[in-house]
Design a protein that fits this description.
- The structure holds two protein chains of two kinds.
- By secondary structure, chain A is α/β, with parallel strands linked by helices.
- The relative contact order of chain A is 0.15.
- The longest helix of chain A has 23 residues.
- Helix content of chain A is 30%, strand content 26%.
- Chain A is built from eleven helices and 26 strands.
- In chain A, helix 2 runs parallel beside helix 10 and helix 7 packs parallel to helix 8.
- By secondary structure, chain B is mainly β.
- Chain B has a nine-stranded mixed sheet, covered by helices on one side. In chain B, strands 1-3-6-13-10-9 form a six-stranded antiparallel sheet, with no helix packed on it.
- In chain B, strand 14 and strand 15 form a beta hairpin.
- The longest helix of chain B has 19 residues.
- Classes of the chains: A alpha/beta, B mainly beta.
- At the A-B interface, helix 1, strand 20, strand 24, strand 25 and strand 26 of A face helix 1, helix 2 and strand 9 of B.
- The complex binds flavin-adenine dinucleotide (FAD).
């Protein structure tokens, strides 16, 4: 019988006979080490900054496709009419000017894990000793029949902030009062588990103020969702019956999209027609993770919990939404927290030291109305080689809180955003 | 609580690297973790060895009897990591033609780490067409899920697959069941099929599928209440049936295939453990 132990032993023999690992890389460069970071979002920008903070002698290059980063967090508040678009945009000035990170505004196309190089769209090739990827998610185009990149121009996902968010906002603004907004929400895992429900809350806020006869339908591929009890109670209290949620077992799963006609078809054949259609499709790790060979068959990146180094390719660290880090959710807060852990592990490894024992925190605020916030929080550590939630570390807002409590949580949400934006990009809101 | 063989497995997992290890061995450990994980996911047939997890599970041994299961041709499709053990999508397909003589008679699904390991048995006929089924199941913990396949010849195939179950931090949920739509049934059948063409059939019934193990608000247990069986016939001829147990997710969902030679009326019957039944029918044009 083949047990895991025999397998490992025999594989061990093979590996020793044909070593496939490069020598410790410090020997290669003059600096304390060359680190390339791909992705200047929550995970990558944080990692770049903390790498330089912990060891200013490191040569850190950040490759980011866009010159300015718009956050998904609070993009729902923009849709709800609570913020303007520029308030969720952040520049990389602090990283370059204060911390001395080299910023390359380009698209990373390929990674050669053996040669330790990253190839950019421009053709430029960057050498690294350590590579950190925080590419976020990509949509699984075609996972829902008819939903591809061109369909997303008509029925936006708005699950990456930027042009997509603005398309959705413009559509909501030009919709007539009395219209129907449909959001299709995916199965787990996906970016920001409470995000779809915060979004419909914010759109309900916008409708209530501007188009009060409009309706919202959530078609869900799940039977339960994050902070469900709190959301549903909040919806009733704030928006009456404006929002209807259809679960998986009530035929909520969308299997086909007709973006031209703003129609969706569910698993058991019901067709719904929207005035504004928002499809949040199934997702996977950003493309560069595939190119680097660090994804699993599910399209996500398995990592070593202590360091967030890839389980599959040495010297490549991956953080944020792209990773399999459950029970940590795919949140900006987690990406930021993981970015710090990976930065510390890289700094330690390049100095020939042990990585510090990690722990991570997460709080996800959701804003249901300008003065109504709810939250879920957790603290995570490594137990038995796996990431686990620290017992009794977190939880959700109380179900019976008064309006004052909800108002304060909405204020904390703003405080949270300000703090994390400062920590990540050095720019508040 | 944890069956011994699972604990053994976990002990066998290479420990996450410590930085005191020299670079080479540390890398080795990482690479091996990946390789071992990949191998554990391939059907055991790829290893050309007998004696998988099934051989240590009473419920599996009871089904296997005197047969000698071959780890070959069974693809058990489950997410490697599931963030919600209460509904884990599960698919099984068997690489065997459904021909006269030797067809797949039944597929049994077993989760040894669950309090009641046998999850379901799916029964096929020559009308079933493709030996393939999808459903949603409950998994109590990380474990190796087993699919035992019975062929009409009496031979058996087996497929196994490791699943890690975690609960994602943002997914904390209230564990209640809304009975508003109890016994609502849904089916979806192909609009039309050519004779001998195989088509997909989707079924779902709204039902809590109470395992009898769930705590109620007052601290007691919510009584067991299960859809135990689903039967599908075409003009009275059996096409497909399923025996469902406690670890089938609430709102039992089953997708299967059929390859009819002629059209007719498809009848679906769900039977609860109380004896109560629900029906649905659909016309199939061939
Ligand atoms: C509507 C919504 C609301 C949300 N609200 C919250 C919230 O309130 N709180 C919270 O904590 N989280 C929230 N999130 C989740 C949060 O946005 C993500 O978890 C977070 O952005 C993940 O960080 P990341 O670094 O993995 O990816 P991202 O932040 O998406 O960063 C990825 C970056 O990499 C760049 N990139 C990718 N590939 C390449 C490449 N090949 N070359 C160059 N650059 C590349 C991209 O341009 C992007 O800038 C929300 C998400 C959504 C959709």
């Amino acid at each position: 019988m083949v047990t895991r132990r025999t397998l490992i032993k025999s594989l061990g023999a093979v590996s020793v006979a044909a070593p496939m690992f490069s020598m410790p890389s410090i020997a290669r460069g003059q600096s304390a080490g060359r680190v390339v970071v791909v992705g200047g979002g929550f995970g990558g920008a944080t990692a770049a900054k903390y790498l330089k903070r912990q060891n200013p002698a490191l040569d850190v290059t950040l490759v980011e496709a866009s010159g300015r980063f718009y956050t998904c967090p609070f993009s729902n508040l923009y849709l709800g009419g609570l913020r303007d678009f520029e308030s969720i945009g952040h520049s990389y000035d602090e990283l370059t000017d204060v911390y001395g990170v080299n910023l390359v505004t380009d698209w990373a196309e390929g990674v050669d894990g053996d040669a330790h190089t990253v190839t950019l769209a421009s053709g430029e090739v960057l050498d690294y000793d350590k590579l950190l990827l925080s590419p976020g998610v990509d949509m699984r185009w075609g996972a829902i029949e008819g939903y591809d990149e061109s369909a997303a121009q008509l029925a936006p996902h708005a699950w990456k902030a930027g042009e997509q968010t603005q398309i959705l906002k413009a559509q909501l603004e030009s919709m007539d009062d009395g219209g129907l907004f449909i959001l299709s929400s995916p199965e787990n895992p996906f970016r920001c588990p409470p995000g779809p429900y915060e979004r419909v809350s914010m759109i309900a806020n916008y409708f209530t103020n501007n188009k009060p006869n409009s309706k919202i339908l959530v078609l869900d591929s799940k039977d339960a969702f994050s902070k469900q009890g709190l959301f549903e109670a909040g919806w009733r209290e704030l928006y009456g019956d404006m929002i209807e949620w259809v679960s998986l077992s009530n035929d909520g799963r969308v299997v086909r999209v007709d973006a031209e006609n703003l129609e969706v078809e569910t698993e058991f054949g019901e067709v719904h027609k929207a005035d504004v259609l928002n499809i949040v499709p199934p997702q996977k790790a950003g493309a560069i993770a595939d190119a680097a060979g660090v994804t699993n068959e599910g399209g996500w990146v398995p990592i070593v919990p202590e360091t967030f180094e890839s389980q599959q390719v040495p010297d490549i660290y991956v953080v944020g939404d792209a990773t399999v880090a459950a029970p940590m959710p795919k949140s900006g807060f987690c990406a930021n927290s993981q970015g710090k852990v990976a930065a510390a592990a890289i700094v330690a490894s390049l100095a020939g030291q042990e990585p510090p024992a990690p722990s991570w925190v997460n709080t996800c605020y959701s804003v249901l109305a300008p003065d109504y916030g709810i939250s879920v929080a957790g603290v995570y550590h490594v137990a038995d080689g796996q990431i686990a939630e620290v017992a009794d570390s977190g939880g959700v807002s109380p179900a019976d809180a008064d309006s004052d409590f909800r108002r304060r949580e909405a204020e904390y949400a703003v405080g949270w955003y300000d703090a994390i934006a400062r920590d990540t990009w050095g720019t508040g809101a | 609580m944890v069956p011994t063989y699972i604990r053994e497995k976990e002990d066998d997992m290479p420990k996450a690297p410590t930085a005191s290890a020299v670079t080479l061995s540390r890398r080795t450990v990482i690479a091996l973790t990946a390789n071992a994980a990949t191998l554990a996911l391939t059907p055991l047939g790829a290893l050309a060895q007998g004696g998988g997890a099934w051989s240590r599970v009473d419920e599996a041994l009871a089904i296997v009897g005197d047969a000698d299961p071959i780890a070959e041709g069974v693809v058990l499709d489950l997410p490697a990591v599931s963030e919600d053990g209460s509904t884990v999508p599960l698919g099984v397909s068997v690489d065997r033609p459904m021909q006269q003589g030797e067809f797949v008679k039944a597929i049994h699904i077993i989760a040894p780490g669950n309090p009641y390991p046998l999850i379901a048995t799916f029964n096929f006929t020559e009308l079933s067409g493709r030996p393939e089924v999808e459903t949603r199941v409950r998994l109590n913990e990380s474990q190796t899920v087993i699919a035992l396949v019975e062929l009409s010849s009496g031979a058996m195939l087996v497929g196994e697959r490791d699943v890690r179950v975690t609960v994602s931090g943002c997914l904390a949920r209230a564990d209640t069941y809304d009975t508003a739509n109890l016994f609502t049934t849904r089916v979806r059948v192909p609009e039309s099929l050519a004779a001998g063409e195989s088509g997909e059939v989707l079924t779902m019934i709204n039902h809590p599928q109470e395992s009898g193990l769930r705590e109620s608000m007052d601290g007691g247990l919510v009584p067991k209440r299960l859809i135990e069986r689903m039967d599908v016939t075409l003009d009275g001829e059996p096409v497909f049936s399923a025996d469902l147990h406690r670890s089938v997710s609430s709102n039992p969902y089953i997708k299967f295939f059929m390859t009819p030679q002629s059209g007719g009326t498809l009848d679906f019957t769900w039977t609860e453990d109380t004896g109560e039944t629900a029906h649905e029918s659909a016309e199939l044009a061939v």
